[in-house]
Amino acid sequence: KIETFYRVFESINENFKKIYKELADGEGELILENPENPFEGGLMIKVRPSGKRALHLNALSGGEKSLASLAFIFALQAYEPSPFYVLDEIDMFLDEKNAEKVAKVISEKAKEAQFIVVSLRRITLKHAHHIYGVTINKGISTLIGNVNLQEVEKIVDKIR
Amino acid sequence: KIETFYRVFESINENFKKIYKELADGEGELILENPENPFEGGLMIKVRPSGKRALHLNALSGGEKSLASLAFIFALQAYEPSPFYVLDEIDMFLDEKNAEKVAKVISEKAKEAQFIVVSLRRITLKHAHHIYGVTINKGISTLIGNVNLQEVEKIVDKIR
Amino acid sequence: MYLKEIVLENFKSFGNRIRIPFLPGFTVITGPNGSGKSNIIDAILFILGVRSPKMMRAGKLTDLIYKGAKEANYCKVSLIFDNSSREIPINSDEIILTRKIRMAPLPNNPDNYYSYFYINGKSASLNEFVELLSSANISPNCIVQQGDVTAIVEMGDVQRRKIIDEIA
Amino acid sequence: MYLKEIVLENFKSFGNRIRIPFLPGFTVITGPNGSGKSNIIDAILFILGVRSPKMMRAGKLTDLIYKGAKEANYCKVSLIFDNSSREIPINSDEIILTRKIRMAPLPNNPDNYYSYFYINGKSASLNEFVELLSSANISPNCIVQQGDVTAIVEMGDVQRRKIIDEIA
Ligand SMILES: Nc1ncnc2c1ncn2[C@@H]1O[C@H](COP(=O)(O)OP(=O)(O)OP(=O)(O)O)[C@@H](O)[C@H]1O
Ligand SMILES: Nc1ncnc2c1ncn2[C@@H]1O[C@H](COP(=O)(O)OP(=O)(O)OP(=O)(O)O)[C@@H](O)[C@H]1O
Ligand SMILES: [Mg+2]
Ligand SMILES: [Mg+2]
Fold this sequence. Notes:
The complex is a heterotetramer, with two copies of chain A and two copies of chain C. By secondary structure, chain A is α+β, with helices and mostly antiparallel strands.
């Protein structure tokens, strides 16, 4: 049982290291609190953003925490893929440079799985394969289907 | 004691209604769960964004919740003003139109009190009286003081 | 396998019947605050078998029914999956999962409601739903809700390890 | 009354001594992720008398001391207020509040530290600090931290009413 856990853990850890490097250009890894008996301890995340010393997870900024979380989520996905993923405003803390990195990673992963992402960010919309606009009128939501980026820019320049 | 509470509550409620109208163009009010004995109940917030029916606070969207929260915070401030307010990324859920409304309200209130606001949003920076840029190099933060909007646009177009 | 279409009927702010077709790849949904983007996500969670209305920002399940100018007494959501790759062990190119909540007030229980599940039009149970979805590796773990992006980092170490436990 | 200047010395990512002057009105602080913007906010909370290091994203108070290429064994923050309007009942145009944490490892307690407070250069207690700030209506309630913007709406009704209690 511990053997099964370790096989899964090692694989996800390898994914995590690779994806965190790609997203944050830093070193990250997953560490078991109790390596001899994993089920008696927790799973810690240690990341060191580029140019900085590794500090407590808590000391990370909003954007840095987002990248670490996303690297973990994507690492799980790489081990046990699902056919689709639905992400609501995962770019809310990210500056332009990091939002673009995440959008590019999603655009690449979208060859293997379907990604449906809610976003208000121009840079995220720029990397989308398809864009939907949602509007509400007198309390009823409607969809504007398959808008292209120019059309959205009229909404988005009002949205964000 | 209940009288003192009611005097404060009524004044803050009036502020809340006015500020929520200004921010969200909707109707909002504060309601005591137990009007006879306020201390035996909670304080509920009821808002009705324009064009919609009033629903549970929980049903509101991220942006709508932000506006309701900010209206409450500003209502408290109007009753018992402080000399300065420090707000870290309060615009993270807001679309462009709402981020601009909030920035304008802050810019107006800044005649009475000092506002120090952390933001990645171009529209918020546009309404600032003064802008500071922060950067980090080899793990040490430094400040770029009193940048004007053109200079920031080089950072911000990279930031967000 | 991919999600081909979502059909919303009286679900939250989608007060009519609306079909949302999807293509494989990377789709972004955008729009102003309060327009209904996260409500679409809630509709997906609704089909993925989420039982707690709080996860879909509702006080009780009947709060998911559109309330507005024209009143409805039911809401219905369908997710249509392309199953050409037979990831779901049903011999059909299309898998339609439908869930419906209908208000049915009783004298002693005005909040009473009935709950329905259908797989390709045939009545089913919530368990059959969840089993079918998990055979394709679809679960609420595929969804990151608004505000939850840093949850992985903010949660306790033991809670995080349990995520790995579940996979192993 | 307004905040004229913040002086940071070895505080979190501000590994040197840095002066940040402020003017009245509306100031925006911007910059890339992880550059130090919220750390400046933490420095303000540090002076406002926040005792729990967790509120400043630190495990213990000594975690607030800059850790990097050049090691420091103390951190120091000063907030300089313009008091021309005498909102604070001290006969001085300028009020300087300084707080310092200095590592002082002991054989039985390597995490030991000393904590210092100064008002206009004179030693003071945390209580004197907080009293002085509250006479000008300055408290952590003036601060909305990153991620907390919807806290008012998400908190329980009773907790929210207690905010009014405190004001009344
Ligand atoms: N049962 C219902 N009937 C009618 N409207 C509803 C119902 N439930 C929720 N709503 C409305 O849906 C709106 C919220 O929609 P949603 O959360 O999808 O917005 P959003 O597009 O995600 O916005 P944001 O960008 O701010 O996150 C609220 O204004 C709420 O009043
Ligand atoms: N004691 C310390 N010594 C050195 N660096 C520290 C210390 N404490 C925190 N840091 C660093 O400060 C950084 C976080 O800074 P901060 O939270 O201010 O960023 P931010 O500008 O608010 O970013 P974001 O836009 O993502 O919210 C982290 O990278 C962390 O490593
Ligand atoms: Mg939303
Ligand atoms: Mg920050």
